[in-house]
Design a protein that fits this description.
This is Carbon monoxide dehydrogenase. It contains 25 helices and 16 strands. It is of the alpha/beta class. The protein folds into 3 domains: 178 residues, Up-down Bundle (Substrate Binding Domain Of Dnak, Chain:A, Domain 2), CATH 1.20.1270; 150 residues, Rossmann fold, CATH 3.40.50; 246 residues, Rossmann fold (3-Layer(aba) Sandwich). It starts with 7 loop residues before the first helix and ends with a helix.
Length: 653
């Protein structure tokens, strides 16, 4: 078997799947080889029925599509269409959360409440809503309604974009990429890529950025804020990650997807005395609810529920033979689950009208009956436990300790202490040369890369160069599984300056800040760094960067565009399918910096990518005239050797 993953649990389950004659995404991906070279370069156009058309990027064949579109126009339109789809996914997530909060405020939901009243009042005041009445439900209804208005707004500026630093907003207005309404920009983008529409590659890309900003600073930010209000703002919590969290003698329920509305209720119901008693009646010791993908991150941060794995492990969780039910909601759900589940006793249950899978059981989620639906699902899983074939069960031993649940707000208290919450220690650490900078490592898994390798290799390389990491999504899942979110064990990978700060503050060197919509927390943390001062007056001046080392979905396209448009240079791999157009590639890799203060780095080798990001951070530090780094990087030495080097450096200072 060719190298598939750096995760031992994944490799074990792939071997078991082979023995059980079960086909997974890894094998299905192999069957696609050789892939279309035109598609990989982004020069294939399927925008109308005169196509598909393909343009020869080497100048020997056709140079235009049937309608006359150039290679630059084709490549730009393909990116824009992908961005519109990705932006719609995360923004629709935000709309659903806003709807749930609105229904809860009106008393029309079952089992939900408003948990974080403090954040509700903060957001209400930011939105200009009168809070003097102190009526929580009234305020929640007004906040939710105001957020819902942002989707259909036709003129003006999306309300939450006003959080951005003034210089960034000035750029957006000058370039006409400040979003008027979340849905409006997505719809207009889709109109522009229709056949016979926009053919100017830069104009197309700028509108894609406009839709993306509406996602990152609109739909995703709304999703994060309202999820905190509805279910509670996370606080640091200990848990475990990897397939080893599944119980040998417990009913195992795996929730998978992205929206926390039903999964939060499933965790609550599964932990009830009623369900625990039913599980014992069926011969199980307890009920374990574990997560896959971003649903995992949501229930991990708020409920401490264990994380079973990331995107490419969804089928492998079932392959353990120990999962009674997998409950899915939206996004990143493999249709192939319906091919794997019947090979075992696992029940595959869909819950969203937007995601139906042939052969799966469907329980339509409705806020008005949330508790009843959760009880039916958990009961069905428990009653399936006696059907487990013990001879076919193989649960990997691998699981790692972790600390998750960091947010823009609670990091204040960890950095500055309860009575002087502040981002000053972070900024000071950067100014003094203890920290090189901060990098957000986010995104998916992709079968085109060795599972988890890029996330892990890239992150470790940065840690030894004193870079603090924040992480979300399936990248967070990877780093959780490999021990980098353990506040003690992870320190062995850190340069001395980073280690010094983590030990003093009591945080791991990799901070888990949530699901993929919670990339908005990275943006708001950057805002706080700018507000604190000393390292620039705009996000684009900060020694920060982003990376999606194993990008997979159209959501990643939107995320990448809005992060770079926010002034954060971002490594992205596999790259957008843009290499068929020199002009589009040059704009994204170089020219975009002139417009937005940041650009993309397309690099497949994670070590080389890390070095490019380190060079970028150093360039930002030099521009700010910050002190040189206090300590040399680890460069692979033993901890003892690193300590000696550190002592010499201190003596030299």
């Amino acid at each position: 078997m060719k190298e598939r993953s750096v995760d031992k649990a994944t490799l074990q389950m792939l071997e078991k799947a082979k023995c059980d004659n079960v086909c997974t995404a890894f094998e299905r991906s192999d069957m696609q080889d050789p892939r279309c070279g035109f598609g990989e370069l982004g020069v294939c156009c399927q925008q109308c029925y005169m196509g598909p058309c393909r343009v020869d990027p080497f100048g020997k064949g056709a140079q235009y599509g049937a309608c006359g579109i150039s290679v630059d126009g084709i490549v730009a339109r393909n990116i824009a269409r992908a961005c519109a789809v990705g932006a719609s996914a995360h923004s629709d997530h935000g709309r659903d959360i806003a709807h749930n909060l609105y229904m809860t405020a009106l008393g029309k939901t079952q089992g939900y409440s408003i948990v974080d009243e403090r954040k509700l009042f903060v957001i209400a005041e930011e939105f200009g809503i009168d809070t003097s009445s102190g009526d929580t439900k009234k305020l929640a209804a007004e906040v939710a309604h105001k957020c819902l208005e942002q989707f259909g707004q036709q003129e003006g500026e999306v309300l939450t974009t006003q959080r951005a630093p003034e210089k960034q907003k000035e750029r957006w207005r000058k370039l006409k990429v400040m979003p008027r309404g979340i849905d409006r920009e997505i719809v207009e983008m889709l109109h522009m890529v229709h056949v016979g529409m926009d053919a100017d590659y830069k104009n197309t890309l700028l509108h894609a950025i406009k839709a993306a900003v509406g996602d990152g600073w609109g739909g995703s930010m709304i999703a994060t804020d309202l999820t905190d209000i509805q279910f509670g703002s996370p606080n640091p919590v200990r848990s475990k990650a990897n397939l080893g969290v599944l119980g040998e003698n417990t009913v195992n329920i795996v929730v998978h997807g992205h929206e926390p509305t039903l999964s939060e209720m499933i965790v609550k119901v599964a932990r009830s005395p009623e369900m625990k008693a039913l599980a014992k009646q069926k011969g199980a010791e307890d009920v374990t609810v574990a997560g896959i993908c971003c649903t995992a991150n949501e229930i991990l941060m708020r409920q401490g529920a264990p994380l079973a794995g990331n995107y490419l492990q969804q089928e492998l969780a079932i392959v353990t033979g120990a999962v009674e039910a997998m409950i899915v909601d939206v996004q990143c759900i493999m249709p192939g689950l319906n091919q794997v589940a019947p090979c075992y006793h696992t029940k595959l249950i869909t819950t969203s009208k937007k995601v139906r899978i042939p052969g799966a059981i469907h329980y339509q989620f409705e806020e008005e009956r949330a508790v009843d639906i959760a009880k039916k699902i958990v009961t069905e899983a428990i009653e399936n436990y006696p059907k487990r074939d013990r001879k076919r069960v193989q649960i990997p031993a691998e699981s790692s300790e972790l600390v998750a649940g960091f947010t823009t707000e609670n990091v204040f208290y960890h950095l500055g202490g309860k009575f002087r919450p502040s981002y000053k220690p972070l900024n000071e650490g950067i100014i003094q040369g203890r920290l090189r900078g901060v990098v957000g490592v986010v995104g998916c898994n992709n079968t085109k890369t060795v599972h988890d390798y890029n996330h892990l290799t890239f992150t470790k390389e940065l840690l030894k160069h004193d870079v603090l990491i924040v992480t979300t999504g399936c990248s967070a899942g990877c780093l959780c599984k490999h021990g980098l979110l353990d506040s003690e064990d992870a320190l062995q990978y850190c340069g001395y300056g980073l280690r010094e700060i983590c030990e003093a503050v009591g945080i791991p060197p990799v901070l888990h800040v949530g699901s993929c919509v919670d990339n908005s927390r990275i943006l708001t943390a950057c805002i706080e760094m700018v507000k604190e001062g000393g390292i620039g007056t705009d996000i684009s001046q900060l020694p920060v960067a982003g990376s999606a080392p194993e990008a997979m979905s159209h959501k990643a396209t939107s995320i990448g565009l809005y992060v770079v448009a926010s002034g954060i240079t971002t490594h992205f791999n596999p790259p957008f399918q843009v290499h068929g157009s020199k002009k589009v590639l040059d704009y994204l890799s170089n020219e975009m910096e002139k417009d937005f203060g940041a650009n993309f780095i397309f690099e497949g080798d994670p070590k080389k990518a890390a070095q490019k990001i380190i060079a970028h951070l150093d360039k930002k530090r030099e521009a700010l005239k910050l002190k040189p780094m206090m300590y040399p990087p680890l460069n692979g030495e033993t901890e003892k050797a690193a300590a000696k080097k550190q002592a010499a450096a201190v003596a030299g200072n």
